[in-house]
Design brief:
The protein is an alpha/beta fold. About 40% of the residues lie in helices and about 15% in strands.
Amino acid sequence: MSFRARHLLGVEPLAPDEIVTLLDLAESYVSLNRRTVKHGDALDGLTQINLFFEASTRTQSSFELAGKRLGADVMNMAVAQSSVKKGETLIDTALTLNAMHPDLLVVRHPESGAVNLLAEKVNCAVINAGDGRHEHPTQALLDALTIRRAKGRLHRLTIAICGDIAHSRVARSNLILLGKMENRVRLVGPATLMPSGVAELGCEVFEDMRAGLDEADVVMMLRLQKERMDGGFIPSEREYYHRWGLDAEKLALAKPDAIVMHPGPMNRGVEIDGTIADDINRSVIQDQVEMGVAVRMAAMDLLARNLRAERGARAAGDVYV
C-alpha cells in the first residue's frame, strides 16, 4: 500500500495516491465497524496518547474509539489537570510524554504549528487533530470518504465550502485535499470571513451565496467560530443566516442530487436550517461522523505500519528512509 508518511500533520504533504490508499483502507474499516464484533488487531501492543489542548467531542471520542477497536492501549491526557496549567512548556510536555514511550500521539492545539513542533521532539508517530487555523487533516479525509461514497467518485466535482473560511482549519485542509483530487472548489461567504490571499488559493470566491451554490455537487457548510473572532466579522446572526445560512431556497440552486455536509457542531438557524440538516435524502452529516472513526482507524493503522518498519530497520542495523 502506498503511504509513506511518518506523521500525519496535514493534508499538504500527502500525494494523491497516499490519499487514495488511506481512503481505500478506511472503506474496510467502515465494514468492520458495522459488524457485531468490531475489533481488529492492527495496533495490538501499541500505546496511543490523546493530547487535547482544546475541547472536542467528535474528534477525541472517535480517535479513542478507533484506537480501542484496533487493540491499542489508549490514554486520554486531561490537559486541564496537567502540568501545562502549571506553566510547563510545550517542549517539556513533549519530552515528558516521549519518556513514556508512546507509539501514537494524537494532538489538538489552539496554536498553528504546535503539533509540528511536538512531532520534532518525540520518537513516535504524531497525528494532527487540529492546530489553530492551520490544518485538520483527518476531518478533510473523512469528508473525502463521505463524498466518494455518496457521489461514487472524488474528482471533477463542484464543491462549495461556505461560511467562516478565515478561521477554519477544516476549510483549509479540504481546499488542499479536494484540489489535489482535481475538483472545482468554491469558497462562499462574507468578505470579512475570507482569509487574506484567498485569490492565490486556486479556487473561486463568491460573496453571493446563491451564485456560489449554482450547480454545485457538494455543499459543505462551516461553523461560525466565534471563539476565534476578536471583532465585528458579521452584522448579526440573523443577518448572517439570511445571506449565508443554508435554507431550502438557496439549496435549490445546487444540483438536485447535491449533498449537504457540516463538520459539527452545528449552529442550527445560523449556518444551516435544521430541516435540511436532518434531511436523510440530502444531508450526509451523520455519515461524516461514522466515516470519522473509520478514517482515523486507517490513519493510525498506516502510521503504525511505517513505525514498525522503521523500528525493524533500525534493529537490523539498516538505514531507514
